[in-house]
Structure prediction request, 264 residues.
Amino acid sequence: MLFKKKTMTDKDLKELLDTEARRINNVSFIAEDPVQFPRRFSDKRDIEIAALLSSTIAWGKRSMICRNADRMLSLMDNQPYRYVMDEGYEELEDCNLHRTFFAKNFRHYLRGLRAIYKKYASLEDFAADELKGVNDHAAWHLAAAINRELAAANGGECDSRCLPLGLDKSALKRFNMALRWLVRDDGIVDMGVWKAIKPSQLYIPLDVHVGNISRQLGLLERKANDRAAVDELTEKLRRFNPDDPTLYDFALFGIGVSGRGGEL
Prediction:
């Protein structure tokens, strides 16, 4: 049965989203999600690198993503920061790491991260520097800055397999997910190790499933899953929780995977 948007008031929507967020945002979620990989580490630099790499390959089946993220960290001897700074990636033979993400893309990313860590104590410090005076769309500003550093470390060459290049249109789904892990600080699933960005500044990681459920709930009108759609959806969710709108990423995920979207 198709869901009729007009049957849901704002009060109904908030109650549904809060309930679903509580149901999904718990420690049992971690074991089958890529968030488990940055959570393996205590050093903030290891967490940052693991978060970026795990989110970068987070498309496709979750089981495959987790298998390949685990393999990627194994290639780094489960010491991401040390591996980056020792340039271990330069000795890595050509191989496929995840679907269309190969060793050459991995090297490209890590060269750029090494350049950042040579100048800053952490990626968060780099973010704080780059985001001075930035109030809106921090994710897109930061992605542009990282892309700049990646290109500079790779002879001016860009690589869309690491981070999207068309940032004026991109939803930045995977990067927004990594930022959710790093910034949200409720002490349950997300780690909250960054203070340079506030939870209120985060944007929903928008993929096909979240987009479809959001339209069904009347939270999103735009048909394309692009940057404008992320703006529209996140602004709607800020009405319900202005300090922590991406809490509802758990809710929209939960409604989608449980099949409840067809029953509402």
Q: What stands out?
A: The chain has two domains: 1-29+203-264, 33-196. The radius of gyration is 18 Å. The CA atoms of residues 33 and 201 lie 23 Å apart.
